[in-house]
Structures are given as C-alpha cells and as structure tokens.
C-alpha cells in the first residue's frame, strides 16, 4: 500500500490537466473550424473517442508487462509533449483546413467529414495516452494488494474530481490571468510533475523489489496474462455488462446535454461560465457517487440487482427532473430578492449552481456509483488492465453516441421533454433487462421478485408518460416570458422563440430569443441600431457593390444594407435555420429581406466562412448578440466593438 495516495494525487492532477486541455483545444479548434454545434461536438467526440481507444490499447498492454508506474510516467510525458506539438502545429492545421474547405466546398457532408477528420487526427495522440492512465494505475494498485473495486472507484473519483478542478480553474482563473498559452504551459507542467514523481516512485519500488527477489529472479510486477482474447474470456455475462456500460455512457452524456440545454432555456445559456458550472455540477455528482461506492460498497460487493436498481433509479430521476425543470424559472427572482442584486455576474453564477445541482446532482451521484459497480462485475483479478480497458472503451463510445444523438437527433426532432422521457425510458428498460437477463442464483421466489421489480419499473414509466403533459417544458418556457408567443422551435444550434409585446404607450413590438436570451427586437432602439449597422458601412464606403452580414437575427441589418441602390449583392451567414424560419415575423421591419433578389443566405458559422472563403466584400457588418453573451457569438471582437459603438438595446 506504500505510495497509494501519492499516486492517487498524481491521478487527480492528470484529471485536472485533461479537462484544461479539453477547454483549450475546444477554443483553438473552434477558431480553426468554426463554432457551429457540429464543430464543437466533433471536438468533444474526438476527445472521448481517444480516451476510449487509449483505455483499450494500454489496458491490454499493461496486463502483459510489468512496472505500471513507469508506463504511467511515459504516458504523462507523452500527453505533455503531444499537447505542446498540437500548439505549434495549430497554424498548419488552420491553413490545411482552409485549403480543404475551399477545394471541397463550404457546405455539405464533405466539409463535415473534414471537421471530424481534423479533430480526430489532432486530438488522437494525447487523448490515447490519457485514456491509458486509468487501467494502468488500477493494475498497479491491484499488484500492490488493493481490491479491484476499491481501486477502480477511488481512482475514478479522484480523476473526475481533478476534472472538476481543471474545468473551474481553467474557465474562471487561468485563462483570464495567464492567457491560453500560459494555461497550456501550466497543464504541461502538471503532466511533467506527475511523470517525474511517478518515475521516482517506480525506481524506488523497483529497487526494493529487486532486493527482495534477488534470489528468485522474479519481480512483484511480473504478470503472465492469459493468451485468450479478453473479449471472449469475459463470457456472455461480461459482454452484456459491457453493453450495459455503453448504454450507461449514452444515457449519462445525453442527460447532461439535455439538462444543460433545458436549464439554458430558462436561465440564459449565453451567460459566461454557465456551461462550465453545469458541467462541474454534473462531474461533482460523479465524484460523490464514486466515493460513496469506494467508502461503503467496494468491500461489501455488489451484484446485478444493485446495478439494475441504480439504472431504474436514474430513469426515475430523469422523469422527476422534468418537474424540477418546470419550476426553475422562478429561481433568478428568488435569488435576486435575497441578495439584492440585479443582472450581476455573481447572482447568475449562484442561480446556475443551484439549478444545476438541483437537477443533476442526485442522478449523477447514482451514475458515479454505477460505473465502479459495473467494473466489480466484469473486471477480473488476473486481467485488470484489459478488462478496465474494455469497460472504459464501452462507456466512452456510448458517451460519444449519447452526445451526438442528443444534440443532433433527439432534441431537434423530439424536443427537450420527449428527449428526457426517451432517455428515462432507456434507463428503466436497461434496469429491467439486467434484472431479468442476469438472474443471480437463488430461489424461484427471489426470481419472481426480480421480475416483479422489473415490471414495476415499466409501470413507473407508463405512469409518467400518462401524467406528465407532452408540452410541459415548452409551456413553462413560454409562460416565463412576457408577451404572446408567436414562434417556438428547437434545433441543433439552440431554441428560438419570438414574442409579441405591448409597450408602455400601447405600441406593439416583437422580441427574438435565442437559447433564453433576447437577441433582437423591433423596439425603437432595436430598429435604430440594427438598421444603422447596415446603413453606416454603406455610407462610409465610396462605391460599395457587395456586402456581407454575419448573423441574420431579425434581418434588419441584412435588409437595410440591401436598400442602398449601389449595392448589387449582399450575403448573410446564419447558423440557425430556426432563426431564418422566424424571419417572416419581422418582414415589416427588415423590408422582407429573405425575398429580396439582392440577398443570398449562407447557412453556417460566420467566422468559419470568413476564414475559409476566397470571396471578397466591400462591406462586412453583423447583427450582433448582446456583448455579455459573446462567448457563443461568431465573432467576439466584432460583437464588443460594434455593439458598444451602436448602443445595444438594454432589453437585448
């Protein structure tokens, strides 16, 4: 047991640096390939896929070789060096993407394939090595006499806790104070420090082992793995648990995305740091759950029944979260009344923390228990690394599919509420499947109880479908906004709403909301600054012929630019098709911009388009979102500069 907690602290550092890298890589790669939902999702998917493949590759490797600490140190050095290499290769990656973009065209499946391929190629080396650290260190602890369940749960908890620390420190402190490059160097130094300490411990343990085994010529690390294929050796029971683990991962990431999107619809998802706070709340639950398992369950054992109950409970939590979400819109006023703040950063941070914990904490705790519990059922003492690698890979690939499916299929096609119910159905069905398909030895009476329990879970689901209205979330969101709803649509990029309101003098105006934030409106101030951003560039140019507008919004900037008789064509790049679909509601204010023959709509990310296109324009302007939500804008510098100069509508 010597050095167990020292190594676990190093694994905490590994988790912190891994999440710091993910934040940095997402920022850098979205500068290269744009900030579309597809681009960001492919970066995350590439990160998770690399972790899964690394766990599979190095888990099997460590079962065949000794000295896990030495391999862990090499992996940490490899992560640091490949992260530095990525930074220096980034300019070449950007120029390569631009070349491919121009040769393949700006739209269609070909350019999506380019995004995915570049993300995978760029992130595969470091994430492969990150993925190998968990099975390698678990192999080492088991070699030292630690139990498989205890080791897996403790390492998983501490690594995830490091991820929480890395997410919060990177998003809230390091980037602001040290910049992106300084934050990268801090993460690299954490990896190298972990590698250095691991090497010293390895040398010390190897020397002691050599002294003890001088007569026999053997080593405490010697391990002869079976030549049987680990996947086959797991058997049908193990394969089913791996499949269940993949579905755990699918449901977990899907729940996280759906909950965050739903919270953003009520609490303004554009608030800076809101996503970091939601992610940290989710990961904190994983940490607590893993540690609960380590402290109370790892030494008592667990079985299929416990895993089935957990999955059923997660499904029930998913259904209950619908009711919690339907009440979260009152939280900002509740917090503001007690703190006396209004639109302050601190208030919104507290609101997001409370809302995220209220929705995510309990189910994520259950998820944190489920992963090491599944490991206790499938990981064997003689092949710890390989079995954990398979478990990690199954869970990781399921997480990738869950993230992509929820963002691009479930939410756009079914909506938030139906996506949550479908995910809850998956968990309840999985719980019932495990209960029935993997019966533990026992009497027929016990078997009957298991079937009854599975049937009860199905009954809970059926009751939930009957009692919860199909439009619950939509209606609560609409009721939380002032005015009459005219348009409501969810897409991959976000939720778009339009409301008709009555002003203090009885006049009517309209407001466009994007992910819960008022982005545009037909108030007097709104019309003035939106149209000014179209007219002013044309007035300052001696002979404009072509123009470009980034972001359609209400269409007023786009329509105003086309009113200049000297201009022959104006292009507009818009990320959300739902925003374009709402355009007719602002046709009277934007001069029916969509039907103007001078105009052309290009769907996509504005920054990506400017980076990759060889088209040149006389005028470039934008219809900006509010500056305080600039983290998700297509051009953060333009948003701050132009909006400040124009004087943004206070309500927007």
Describe this structure as you would to a colleague:
- Helix content is 69%, strand content 7%.
- The protein has 652 residues and is an alpha/beta fold.
- The model is unreliable at 219-228 and 630-652 (pLDDT under 50).
- It has three domains: 1-210, Up-down Bundle (Growth Hormone, Chain: A), CATH 1.20.1250; 232-467, Growth Hormone, Chain: A (Up-down Bundle), CATH 1.20.1250.20; 532-646, Vaccinia Virus protein VP39 (Rossmann fold), CATH 3.40.50.
- Helix 10 runs antiparallel to helix 14.
Portion in helices:
55-70%
The structural domain count equals 3
Using only C-alpha atoms, the radius of gyration works out to 27 Å
What distance separates the N and C termini?
A: 59 Å
What general form does the structure show? globular
Uncertain stretches of 5 or more adjacent residues: 219-228, 630-652
| Overall pLDDT level | 80
Q: What's the CATH H-level superfamily name of the largest domain?
A: MFS general substrate transporter like domains
SS-based class: alpha/beta
Number of strands: 8
CATH architectural label of the largest domain: Up-down Bundle
CATH class of the largest domain: Mainly Alpha
Strand arrangement across the biggest beta sheet: 1-2-3-4
